[in-house]
Amino acid sequence: MVAALSAQSPAPRALAGFSDSGAAAQLAREKTFDASLQRGNLQQWLKRLSAKPHHLGSPAGKEVAEFVAARFQSWGYQVEIETFYPLFPTPKLRKLEMTSPDKFVAKLEEPVLEEDSTSGVRQDQLPVYNAYSVDGNVTGQLVYVNYGLPGDYDALAERGIDVKGKIVIARYGNSWRGIKPKVAAEHGAIGCLIYSDPHEDGYFVGDAYPKGGFRSASGAQRGSVLDMPLYPGDPLTPGIGATKDAPRLTKEKAESITKIPVLPISYEDAMPLLKALGGPVAPRGFRGALPLTYHLGPGPATVHLQLEFDWKLTPAYDVIARLPGGELGDEWVIRGNHHDGWVFGASDPLSGLVPMMEEARAVGELAKAGWKPKRSIIYTVWDGEEPMLLGSTEWAETHAAELRKHAVAYVNSDDNGRGFVELAGSHTLEHFINEAAGDVNDPEKNVSAQARRRAIGTVMGRKEKGDLALGALGSGSDFTPFLQHLGIATLSIGFGGEDASGGVYHSIYDSYDHFVKFDDPDFQYAVALAQLGGRATMRLAEADTLPVRFDGFVRAVKGYVDELTKLADKMRADTAESNQLLADHVRELVSDPHDRYVAPAPKDPVPFLSFAPLQNAIAELERSSTAFNEKEKALRGPLPLESRKALDQILMNTERVLLREEGLPRRPWFRHQIYAPGFYTGYGVKTIPGVREAIEERRWSEAEQQIPIAAAVLKAFAGQIDAATKVLGAAK
Amino acid sequence: MVAALSAQSPAPRALAGFSDSGAAAQLAREKTFDASLQRGNLQQWLKRLSAKPHHLGSPAGKEVAEFVAARFQSWGYQVEIETFYPLFPTPKLRKLEMTSPDKFVAKLEEPVLEEDSTSGVRQDQLPVYNAYSVDGNVTGQLVYVNYGLPGDYDALAERGIDVKGKIVIARYGNSWRGIKPKVAAEHGAIGCLIYSDPHEDGYFVGDAYPKGGFRSASGAQRGSVLDMPLYPGDPLTPGIGATKDAPRLTKEKAESITKIPVLPISYEDAMPLLKALGGPVAPRGFRGALPLTYHLGPGPATVHLQLEFDWKLTPAYDVIARLPGGELGDEWVIRGNHHDGWVFGASDPLSGLVPMMEEARAVGELAKAGWKPKRSIIYTVWDGEEPMLLGSTEWAETHAAELRKHAVAYVNSDDNGRGFVELAGSHTLEHFINEAAGDVNDPEKNVSAQARRRAIGTVMGRKEKGDLALGALGSGSDFTPFLQHLGIATLSIGFGGEDASGGVYHSIYDSYDHFVKFDDPDFQYAVALAQLGGRATMRLAEADTLPVRFDGFVRAVKGYVDELTKLADKMRADTAESNQLLADHVRELVSDPHDRYVAPAPKDPVPFLSFAPLQNAIAELERSSTAFNEKEKALRGPLPLESRKALDQILMNTERVLLREEGLPRRPWFRHQIYAPGFYTGYGVKTIPGVREAIEERRWSEAEQQIPIAAAVLKAFAGQIDAATKVLGAAK
Prior knowledge:
Two copies of one chain form a homodimer.
Chain A: H1 2-7, H2 20-36, H3 39-49, H4 59-74, E1 78-84, E2 87-100, E3 104-105, E4 130-131, E5 136-144, H5 150-158, E6 167-171, H6 179-186, E7 191-195, E8 223-224, E9 262-265, H7 267-275, E10 302-313, E11 316-323, E12 328-338, H8 346-368, E13 375-382, H9 385-388, H10 390-398, H11 400-406, E14 407-412, E15 419-425, H12 430-438, H13 449-459, H14 479-485, E16 490-497, H15 512-519, H16 524-542, H17 551-583, H18 586-590, H19 612-634, H20 641-656, E17 675-678, E18 682-687, H21 689-696, H22 700-730
Parallel strand pairs in A: 4-8, 5-6, 6-7, 7-9, 12-13, 12-14, 14-16
Antiparallel strand pairs in A: 1-11, 2-3, 2-10, 5-10, 11-13, 15-16, 17-18
Helix pairs in contact in A: 2-8, 2-16, 3-8, 8-16, 10-14, 17-19, 17-21, 19-22, 20-22, 21-22
């Protein structure tokens, strides 16, 4: 009986967007695809491309673009290198010294390590700096501001400490780095240092490089501090492509450049400064893992910070490789990863790039063997991601009109490592990418990548049945212009969590030697990423209709609205309570008279907000989504091509209608009303940002204005679902 | 009108246990008492008594006892020095060295500091050691076990690490120190080191001594590791007084002595050992504030630990000073503080002792001026508290029969510092001590000590109206034999939270110099303690009837029962969940194959326990307590002496009936069924310990047995309330 049962052919495997026969053919195609993936390519390309510093504007950066372009060409793609000319500052002078109470000059250098062969390749190495810091020459007393976030300054103010006219030192972590100088400047600081505390990034986490993979005493983190949450891309050409002749702002008018000079340093350089701070002992949450008592200052440590940069327009080379589609060739599936690093960039970005190359090679082989995907596939390899998504943003801005018309999805990867699959993006693609992750084997365990991800979720207390919830996207990689400026459904994919790539993030030690020792030694997860990226790209390109589903989106948005109502309620209760404590002088009673305590001003009470428009929109979404599902389930047989074209247009539009042309308050470049990088978190997402940030920042009337705006896009989304349902109903 | 109103005499101030006129007289007496307190005495005594090492058995220890006795004599007390002869080991040989991979010999010494004048008084200094470690000479690989608690060994086992035949190194903190070698021995370790990690005790907390008050690199914490939760006091005479001729166990039969050698070390001595550990990186909760990556081992660090002690019977000098009472002179109010230190002991215990002396001096003056308290007052000054409550335990055991008959309450203090009043003890005295704390001024803020305590509770999220809840007592000072062995209602009082006494706890730097710089520079809180202790003692002695109330007790016990039911429910759910994770191999899926993971055995499921007897007992307590309150409220006029005597006997008995002669399971010395030190927490209390520990340690049938036992003492308590109500009803 058992034998008889298993001898029966299995029920046909369903695949979102595919007919049964289409699914079977696609699954067979993926077998061929998997079989052609070669680890040797991954290893060789990673080693080759990480041999020299290949940041934006470097000789090797151009070579990398040309090498990649040549490969794509050889695999049968229509390739072009598209060049943009963004402003990109590189250091001319970096000087940091303590002038009192002791003399100390910061080294600002990552030394050569015998165990790390490329660390000795000094030519063209960009030194440690923060791109888009203004030039500056400042001297002032130092104040330690913890992570440098608004709440940290509140804690300082309660201790009577003001940073006006001072230089602040913040530790990396708990927010994107660019927030730190922005908030420091808002509070009147004249300079900003950011150091890597070993508590977040060093020996507290694991053994330091080269013994282990984590950041060493002199390791430091380069990185952009452009005010990305305002707008990413070239600071001189917001909203338009930085082509050769584009109209440009002057540097002085570019609002995304910092207001004060800022420099990242290692903990070895930070220690003497922190040790020389007096003033109160830092509150518990401010203390890191250095062997010292953290004090807040101000002073007596006084530092002199001098920074000068070479501000020049720098060519960015984007590689664009097309594989034209068939019957739905006007619909574009875009897959991308950047190619520029801060220095050698073995992990960031090459560990993501080389799997995408191998994926593209295998796709190219399938095409050479006769497969023509229904939709067009465009592989994009971006330059200048590190300075702030320059290549992707300028390309997306340049081609905005076409993209809005043709792009059905953008699938991004970036650095990739050993561990768990990481899935984030547009919730309309939640089911789709879950299906793909369920079909990729985790190379360390005999289960799917999805199953292993589910397991760690379970351990962490999330019990997810069915599809795993996608993370919402803030920023931090090239998906931002596609999702948040153009409204193209987006996915971000990768693996990680067991590697130590974070320990050399944006350092010269992000090298081949580090990668094969501490990240993905056997390139197993590089293969897994190629498999996942390949499935996502091919399925998006080949599906009969776009594999968009609405359940995940509705669930996610309903959750966000629920969070917003709870946020307002909690702030109302907390405000009432903290105002009551102030009125009762409770903290004055508790405070130690040996320390200084300055009572904050009472906060304005939190009004009740009218969330009804959002709640009604959710109800409408639920009705529309249910109707669509029922109609789809009832569908028998394939749709005719014209219906599929019409349906795809509508499905593509669901993400588009989540934009609003005016953008978010005070940052028109960001148009998406559901996902945005936080104005005070950076990479960290704010969902329904217009409403959420208005509440968080206590702009009550703005919150009242933003609620119907967010509700309107959700209603428009529901309208698109209804239109799609209509197409399904019309077909039969 | 306002003037007229305020000109009226105020309503008479109520005071628990007092008639209106008695209360007025007592409040007037306290004004005189307060006026006679002299800061100069506090400062001079503290300086004098901390000039030399005065541990148990030291020449200066005897001098301290004699000095104190002479003072009490001069203040009009009937004084005797009562001597006991407990076993007390002192070091003959202490050797700790790393034999591989590197050679390192631990210094085991706290150096002389110029800024700390007594640190140079080397004669008679007890070196750094743990009293009641067995002798031993062991060599083994080292394993880092975090705080050394049972859960830490579970975490090690999951990583495939066994301590059998190994030497463990644990950090101080998160439990009383004696738990660490006990649990290590239970797991088969052959030796135990305990070091002071700066995360709990050093630069992470605040500036190290002498710059600040916190523990320095070579500072180490002496302390007893006697298995106090089994029984405190002389290990050779459990349950009976260690008089000269008492029958004694041999040392080998004394179960409270450790099973393995144990030594405390500074972080300076610990660093080379921790640095030489290999094996997995320690899990996050294991990591301290040293500048290294914490590894678990075992080895390669191999250490040799050799300890030899001089085991001798050592005279302990208790000072007992009596002030006989009047009409209720058979009822004894006992007030106590110890006089022995580990070395100079300025904070521990002198900061508590000298205020008690000044309190006694002022009480003596009142007596000389003609006041004769209704009840007798006994001031007790204990020797040998540090080795483990030797003086108090032996005295309480010796005088058990009298104490059970006469003692109405014991009020303990120990080290005292700057900050917030700390109130703990029998909940029948909750209202009483709240009243007293409400009448003592906080010296830093213009409010009562109670009000300031309430304020910090509010900040920490406890919103308490009316009386502040008393903490329940575990152990850690001389109250233990009175409360938990004899069932005498007990209070523990003191101030702290703003001082840095913890930074020199049990170190040679617990000195006068440290105290006047970092603890209570102006002796303000020493005066406050004298005021609070004086009020507690005088009011207990002078009240018409004992100021016992039941509301606080009923509320507390109801809370404990509620905790127990929730504990069982939570363990049941957690067990089911963790067993399910095991069955599903979830952690195996999540685990990093580069690390070792050993799945634990599934746990036995948690049965439903019959809590009804406890719940019914609570209901009975509530009824009885309400009836008592009503009757008391209805009372008009004072009770006759005989009724008051009868009532006091019953009220005294309420705490006695909470004992059970058989004691707690496996530790018969501990008889109290509501409060006990935790078998695996030490000083930390376990309330309703018979039931709670049975549940926590998964002994389900014992839990079922202990529930009715605990219920029975609560019912007996309710019976005493009813008896008290009857006395009130009979009077009229």
